[in-house]
Amino acid sequence: MIPGQSRAARDILTFYVENGVDAVIGEAPIDRLAGHAPVPPAAEEAGAASAVSRAGESGAGARPAPPTLILSRRTESDPQPLPGAEEAVMAARAAAKTARSLEELRSILETFEGCGLRATAKRLVFADGNPRARVMFVGEAPGKEEDLEGLPFVGPSGQLLNLMLASIGLDRTRAYIANIIPWRPPGNRDPSTHETQICLPFIRRQIELVDPEVLVCLGKPSTAALLGVVDGIRRTRGRWMTYHTGRREIRAMATFHPAYLLRSPLEKRLAWRDMLAIKKALSASPQGGGSGPDEPTG
Ligand code: URA
Fold first, then answer.
1. Ligand 1 proximity of 258 Cβ (cutoff 6 Å)
2. What is the DSSP string of 7-35?
3. Average pLDDT score, the chain
4. How many angstroms separate the alpha carbon of residue 128 from the centre of ligand 1?
5. Tens digit of each residue's pLDDT (9 = 90 or more) over 248-269
6. Which atom from ligand 1 is nearest to the alpha carbon of 140?
7. Selection from 120, 262, 90 nearest residue 186 by Cα
8. 156 CA to middle of ligand 1, Å?
9. Is 41 helix (H, G, I), strand (E, B) or coil?
10. What stretches of the chain adopt beta strand conformation (E)?
11. Distance 145 CA to ligand 1 centre (A)
């Protein structure tokens, strides 16, 4: 490779990953500007959402074009699950079931290869907070800062979550925090349905092992995945619902995701009401006196 090219190649790869391109699906270029040029079947089958060419123009007298990568960014509208999708979900279910502790669950996830997000993420983002807490908060998926630190909610929305916790006398020694998806989706794209299905058995097992008294779903994706309610979050938030672990029922509430509150600060007053309801539920429960197992672990 010509000096300077390797750096350019590295830069373009970084650009692809940052922008959510996570698979190479073909070698022939697609000229999206050429009207109705036929799409190579490989790209069509894989539901290519974008095609990126690094070939130069070819024409009379031009050098043969170098090989061209057709890259894909999967989207929610991808019609078909990837090959092996069902197997990956089954493997996730089987693996999650074997975890007898949170430590075991974390190490299973560290080596689980069934979810493609693991390949593009820098770190597994498993959880933060106190595993013996009486309240557990579940967000959607890590962002850039979380990916770098390996901890959930450490970026701007995490700062707001800290304030929300503090508003009802909680902090990370008295709450447990995780996400539906434990790896950052490239470019912060939305996780696909398939990725969510694969990760669901793990977060379900995590909830079962933490066994909180109160479960709080942050935002619509978490609420839809865990509580099966797909209405808009404005309709869903603030209502007590039930989360079934399979062994017992846990009181659950949806509230706004802190990232949404950063964009829509007027909604903070409703989030404040939800936090007060959570505080009330915790103090009304038998362990509400403060000497329960959510005492700071130090
Ligand atoms: N948003 C989430 O849903 N989770 C995080 O950990 C950070 C931002």
1. no
2. HHHHHHHHHHHHTT--EEEESS---TTST
3. 84
4. 12
5. 999 999 999 999 999 999 999 9
6. 3
7. 120
8. 9
9. helix
10. 23-26, 70-72, 128-129, 135-139, 176-179, 214-218, 240-244, 249-255
11. 9
State in Å: Cα 201 to ligand 1 middle.
Answer: 19
CA 120/CA 28 separation, integer angstroms: 24
Burial label, 296 (beta-carbon count in 10 A; 0-12, 13-18, 19+) = exposed
Could you tell me the distance, in angstroms and rounded to a whole number, from the CA of residue 98 to the centre of ligand 1?
26
259 CB within 6 A, ligand 1: yes
Q: Is the shortest distance between the CB of 192 and ligand 1 below 6 Å?
A: no
- Determine the length of the chain: 298
Q: Cβ distance 189 to 139 under 8 Å?
A: no
Query: CB–CB of 294/129 below 8 Å?
Result: no
Candidates 126, 157, 165: which one to mutate for ligand 1, based on the most atoms within 8 Å of Cβ?
Answer: 157
How close is the Cα of 177 to the center of ligand 1, in Å?
10
Over the stretch 197-251, which tens digit does the pLDDT of each residue have?
999 999 999 999 999 999 999 999 999 999 999 999 999 999 999 999 999 999 9
Q: How confident is the model at residue 49 (pLDDT cuts 50, 70, 90)?
A: very low
Per DSSP, which regions of 123-274 are E strands? 128-129, 135-139, 176-179, 214-218, 240-244, 249-255
Cross-strand bridge partners of residue 156: none
pLDDT tens track for 146-175: 999 999 999 999 999 999 999 999 999 999
Q: Is the CB of 128 under 6 A from ligand 1?
A: no
